[in-house]
Description:
- There is one protein chain.
- The protein is mainly α.
- It has one domain (2-220): Up-down Bundle (Vanadium-containing Chloroperoxidase, domain 1), CATH 1.20.144.
- The chain is 73% helix and 4% strand.
- It is built from ten helices and two strands, in the order H-H-H-H-H-E-E-H-H-H-H-H.
- It has helices at residues 2-19, 23-33, 35-52, 55-82, 87-90, 119-135, 142-155, 161-193, 195-200, 208-220; strands at residues 95-98, 101-104.
- The protein has a two-stranded antiparallel sheet with strand order 1-2.
- Strand 1 and strand 2 (101-104) form a beta hairpin.
- Helix 8 crosses helix 10 (208-220).
Amino acid sequence: xxxxxxxxxxxxxxxxxxxxxxxxxxxxxxxxxxxxxxxxxxxxxxxxxxxxxxxxxxxxxxxxxxxxxxxxxxxxxxxxxxxxxxxxxxxxxxxxxxxxxxxxxxxxxxxxxxxxxxxxxxxxxxxxxxxxxxxxxxxxxxxxxxxxxxxxxxxxxxxxxxxxxxxxxxxxxxxxxxxxxxxxxxxxxxxxxxxxxxxxxxxxxxxxxxxxxxxxxxxxx
Length: 221
């Protein structure tokens, strides 16, 4: 069974990375997945939301930071334990696509494998989940970007499909658990010590329907 799953993983990697490649995606995917492109715009937007945003916008920034830090701890620990090299480091003839061009891989030893799980996929899925909780149906549109980023990590040769799936499942697990825990803390602390704020926001992150869904998800984890 494990051998079969590994074969599927490799076949899907080669399909996405090579068979389904085209010049438009060769330009778009590295641009989409490069944090250096998005770092400063994201920091500027986060600062603007903290300064001029309303309750939900400030909550979004704070909770995003919490989930990113949570993800760094969880994903970083698993990366260290699994120690899996990236496809372009470990396999022959993988297209390593970045903004400078395309290089065909040749296997070489690496000191630290950083492939499993995908932190890009995990962080974007955690953010999409958070947007869905805070903004409802409009927030769910962010899932389109999250899934595109996850796909891009396979396309550019930096991750196996299994790395991306692992990142997605991990992110959903710790995001749901964190949101559930924060909401429960707010119900206890806010009701007792912050009555005025609690009166305006009886549910810190979610309305009653969403909170029920989160609680159900927590029981399933």
